[in-house]
Amino acid sequence: MRTFLLLLLTLPLLLGLAAPDAARLRLGLLKYNGGGDWYANPTALPNLANFCNQVLHTDFDPDYGTVDVGSAELFNYPWVHMTGHGNVVFNASEAENLRNYLIGGGFLHVDDNYGMDPFIRVAMEQVFPEAEFVELPFDHPIYHQTYDFPGGVPKIHEHDGEASQGYGLFWEDRLVCFYTYSADLGDGWEDESVHNDPTAVRAEALKMGANVIEFAFRQ
Fold first, then answer.
1. In Å, how far from its chain's centre is CA 98?
2. Which of 104, 130, 171, 181 is the most exposed place for a label (fewest CB within 10 A)?
3. 3-class SS at 205?
4. In the chain, how many domains are there?
5. Residue 10 lies in domain
6. Which residues belong to any copy of the DUF4159 domain (predicted)?
7. Among residues 65, 45, 69, which one has the least CA distance to residue 186?
8. Which residues have C-beta within 8 Å of that of residue 161, sequence separation ≥ 6?
9. C-beta of residue 64 within 8 angstroms of C-beta of residue 49
10. C-beta of residue 87 within 8 angstroms of C-beta of residue 93
């Protein structure tokens, strides 16, 4: 039933239409425990929503929603973003809730804002103990939606000079979680004045973000 409701909500986006007699869809920001700054990049999701509305002809409300990982409200958001620099902790009920959300048709994008990697891997192992992150090949469709990224995730911030990477968690051959590492897409989505990134760099970040959303709604 939850899968059906998510499809019902997202079908208008695929057609470039607003859902009739319904509130506009909002992107979600995942709130978690453990001390990590889940609230980093506050201007990122509004800018990404506006960009997608312009280039993908979606109708997202730029006013994103903040949702606790263990809340039933999670199921109101077909696409949820997670970021931070540090610790991530899921208790058993939170891990189960996130698992049910992802199995039921939801999609999670995790963007390491530098320092999150060792914690998110442990946390997601709680959610899917039978699966693990695998690096996506450059020919994966997520890199070839409206925008083409033949070299994978674009590099936005240096992060000790490491190469940017994109990892996926799969449930029954469906990509349910896309994890961008050492790229910092969210910083590139923020207002230009926040990090003073060049216009071309911010454009690459927004285009990759649009690809992630487009793939999530079309797969």
1. 14
2. 130
3. helix
4. 1
5. 2-218
6. 27-217
7. 45
8. none
9. yes
10. no
Q: How does 105-142 read in b/e, with b if 16+ C-beta sit within 10 Å?
A: bbbbbbbbbbebbebbbebbbbbbeeeebeebeeebeb
| Residue 88 DSSP one-character state | -
- What is the distance between the alpha carbons of residues 9 and 106, in angstroms, rounded to a whole number? 12
Nearest to 178 by CA among 107, 122, 115: 107
Residues constituting the chain: 219
Cα separation, 206 vs 15, in Å, equals 21
Contact of 61 with 25, CB cutoff 8 Å: yes
Task: Report DSSP state, residue 89.
Answer: B
Which CATH number fits the domain that encloses residue 38?
Answer: 3.40.50.12140
Q: What is the DSSP letter of 64?
A: E
Other C-beta atoms closer than 10 Å to the C-beta of 148 total: 10
Q: State pLDDT tens for residues 145-156.
A: 999 999 999 999
pLDDT digits (tens, 9 = 90+) for 158-205: 777 789 999 999 999 999 999 999 999 999 999 988 888 899 999 999
